[in-house]
Fold:
Amino acid sequence: MSLPDSRSPGKHSSPGLQSCSVVQLNVGGHVFTTSLSTLRKHPDSQLAFMFSSGQQPKLPTDAKGRYFIDRDGTHFGAILQFLRTQRLPTESVLEVYQEALHYDVRTLVKQLQDSAQLFGETVGRQQFISRVPNYLENLEVLVRVARAEAIAARHSAVIVCVLRTEEDLGRYDHAVNNLEEQEVVRFGPWKAPPTAIDLLDCIKMDVEARGYKVRYEPHSSDRGFLFKTNDGFLYKLIFTWW
Structure:
């Protein structure tokens, strides 16, 4: 949910903040106590805008009069910690980064982008994924197929075809024709150094980020034939449900 814009009309029940330096916040059920000076530390941030000097915040309040922000507050403490001490988080860095973007704390956004954790994710992995055609769409198909196969089963297996190069396209139809009408989710080809295993690791990471438990292995037919080249081809992604 978007943060309320203090320039838009709205109801509030708390007195003005000019005479009070301590602010209590309820962020999605997580309660925080901080100061106005902390919230205003970065004047160009959304938090500073919400609690602008000389203005009454147009935020709702909870039953105890605390200003309420209707957003998950799990990582809001890390935002406050940075505003207070300039200390960067060491855990849940990607999640804190998303919160910093939301609250428009630009100094924190920039420092997190330069951190080792996010540099590898944004400059390395995400840039690679962007070069894999229809990656996100195929990820959705993959999960949908796995869920459809989960009825009365502990595991779901989805066949994934990884086409590393344009040359692999020529072998795609032949391999798929031997799968006896099994649905196949295709990824690639792409023009970037990472291998098929690198792509499978990306798929695994992104599926597990949605809360699923998954592993992958090379796919073989019932006759024992392994559909595999030196750099991938057909793999089986196995979801475990319980």
Q: What stands out?
A: Confidence is low (pLDDT under 50) at residues 4-15.
